[in-house]
Amino acid sequence: MSQEGLAHEAGLDRSYVGRIERGEHNLTFVALVKLCRAMKCDVATLTAGIPVMAS
């Protein structure tokens, strides 16, 4: 799926998706959920294996 297609399916701006992909913008939880729905996966699957940061 292209960046533009993903952004369209998720209801997000293409430039926002691009900034997230390049690490220039932090992803909000709401945007994460929208992207997961567009990719037909759940948040747990997408984030599996990412270590939890201690505070």
Model description:
Helix 1 packs across helix 2 and helix 1 packs across helix 3. Helices cover 58% and strands 0% of the residues. The protein is mostly helical and 55 residues long. It has one domain: Orthogonal Bundle (434 Repressor (Amino-terminal Domain)).
Question: Keywords for this structure?
Answer:
single chain, 55 residues, mainly alpha, 434 Repressor (Amino-terminal Domain)
Query: Rg, please?
Result: 12 Å
What fold name stands as the CATH topology?
434 Repressor (Amino-terminal Domain)
> Any idea what the CATH superfamily is called?
lambda repressor-like DNA-binding domains
At the first level of CATH, the class is Mainly Alpha
Residue windows where pLDDT falls under 50 for at least 5 positions: none
SSE map:
Blueprint lengths: L2 H8 L3 H8 L7 H11 L3 H5 L8
Helix pairs in contact: 1-2, 1-3
Put the structure in a nutshell.
This protein is mainly alpha-helical and 55 residues long. The protein contains four helices and no strands. The chain has helices at residues 3-10, 14-21, 29-39, 43-47.
